[in-house]
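To make this tangible, this section ends with a sequence with its structure tokens:
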Amino acid sequence: MVPGRVTGRRGPSAGPPYFGIGFLSVLLPTLIVKRVHLLDLYRGDLTGVLRWILVDPAPWQRLLYTSGFFARDVAEVFVGWGAFYLLARKILRLRPSIVTGVGAAVALLVTGANYMTFRELGTFLTLDVLLISVEWVSRNPEIVRQYVSIRNFAVLPVAAAWIAVPVALPPRIAAWPRGRWLTRALSPASLFVVAAAAAGLSYASSEIAFGGKLPHWGYWSSAASAFFEVRERRGKDVDLVGIDALREQFHAIAYPAGDPPHAAAPVEVPASLRVPRHVVIIAMETASRDYYPILDDPNLPAFHRMQPRSFTSTHHFTTRTSTTWSAYSILTGVYPPTRRDVLRYGPYEGDGLAALLAPRGYEATFIDSYNLDFHERDMKSRMWTDIGFTTLLDPDRFPAAPVHDVYEKHLSRDERSFTAVRDAVLGAESRGKKALVFLSTMLGHYEWKAKPGHEALNGRQRLYEILVEYDRMLGGVLDALEKAGLGNDLLVLVTGDHGLRNQAEFDSLGEPMLLGRAAFNVPFMLYAPALLDHEVPLPYPTSHVDIAPTILDLTGTDARGSFFHGESLLHAGLAARAVFLMNTGLNPTDGYYFKGKFFTYNSLSEMREVARDETSSEPRMMTPEGAEARGIPDPLRDPRAFLDRGRENFERAARYFAEKRKGT
């Protein structure tokens, strides 16, 4: 006889109530963790979503909605646990005690992993997030320190006890003189009746009482759907359309109130000055504008001397809270589609800077201070090559730096990267060429690092010290280029790749975790000493997708046959445009910004925010009638529909570029 296996024909209802106790060991953590998730999603009010359809929900309506929401989990757990129990007992022939112990362990593992992911990202664990996390920890083991605490270790004995109880308790219930009624209550037949009643309550609450208009998701089905990215899968390809149709479609989306009235550009740049110049783009890692104040600070000498001859913005936004995809938007001028949509149409090339500047004698260099192919192996290198970069550099291409302190290690990487920026420009000049250099930095990545001896500094102070280092390194590059006589032959753009992304980052700075300024508003300074004799503050919101068209415009590069979602920053009509803010693949909340207001949609909670003020952290839910009364353009009143229209256009653009690469 094989240990751990049994023979015979005893069904799940015979003997001690292993089936019922196992069911409870899975159900209870499910309900507890789901309640915690819901409180986070709905900002502490489980029934707040009722205000989407009811002005003043009655207590019985709140109770019905909450009961139905959790009743679905009773039904889901019964079905899932029943299938697992039957498979383990009938097919694998495992002892019931082993089955219940394993079931309880799996329930704790899954709910625990999703609890951590929910806390950090506001969503369920996905396979992609799991793989990224494992690789990130393997490369940066010091990051584990933030999770080492007495509280976290105290969870281990509690978990061990939770797993042991379903194994030890059923025989004791069966041996208890009064345990017969409890054994019957926990039998599969009795629990089937309970699960059927719960399914009926869930359906009645969701479809009958509230007409299917409110979220009503089950924990385990949602967790499985998120892990395997089921919601990201589209049923069919979008239609292939030409460049003119793409432009018309996006213009109709981005300008929800119609074509803006004509307005003068913030500054006139003569055509005679729009000539090829060396272009340097610095994307500072995790640089939220509120914590990277590059403007009006004499303690930052490089930025301070650049500002009087720069385009500047206090309302510049990243497109995605992702280093890779924000860089893609900067360099191509388009909003990236979802990761799956990027891959489904095959290799592609955007009409970006490197591809369009190459015929004008530019050498394109992409520098990553961390690793070019983190997580997706060589996919990113191929992508940068596809959009025209001929030289790719990261620390693996540089001599190793003999430093052991975490801060010094990352600082050394960025210092070598800034040196590579200088060398790329000087090298191109020596060959009679112009340089396009893009640098993605590393020092500002969470957890915020501090110089040795400065560990007592808080998060804001640490970030400012990092900014001081960036100012020093950038100043060194500018000094070297000015010494070489290139001081006026430059366009230098400094921005952030994205802002704050996960709960730990928000908590470290005392910020509420939401889609807003801290996550998407990044610094912006475009130094153009040959074009400007004074600072030009841009009076309207701008986006990463505007950078490529702007650089092309200022270098006099013809891009009329190219497609961009963005426009030159000299186009004053941008004041009437909506700017997309996408968390796709990392967080379930996407949104857009329009005239000082944030609009968001959470695909998990289905919570919609309409016209939240940019300075507010309070959720702003509004009925369509309320939005109309406030003068909000009709297309913006339903964030879900507006975002779907945007995503469809982003995917169409990806297909257009893929087909263009194929020559079809």
Observations:
- Residues 59-91 form the longest helix (33 residues).
- Residues 18-232 form one domain.
- The chain has two domains: 18-232, 278-662.
